[in-house]
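Would you kindly consider the sequence and fold I have copied below?
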Amino acid sequence: QVQLVESGGGLVQAGGSLRLSCAASGRTLSNYVMGWFRQAPGKEREFVAAIDWTGGSTYYEDSVKGRFTISRDNVKNTVYLQMNSLKPEDTAVYYCNAARLNVGSWYPLWGSWGQGTQVTVSS
């Protein structure tokens, strides 16, 4: 069974940057499209970004386009999310998971999640 460990979150002022990492064990991530999802207090978990097997194609939720960059290192079995120009509305717990595209929307592939990493952006 896959184990996902997210890290890199923290408290940052609006306009600041953070780089999140997702390390996996139990699965070879290069076999999967990988994604980042987030869940804000009182809201459902939502898609943020996805990256294909080789890193050649990336996909973003509209509100993060131009500010976030997803990348991967298949040798390290790790996925990253560089977040720049952070806004208070980016405050959430961020999770990684394998991702699948279905009828124009992105969904998590695996039923299990890591503990996530908290991102808090102050205004």
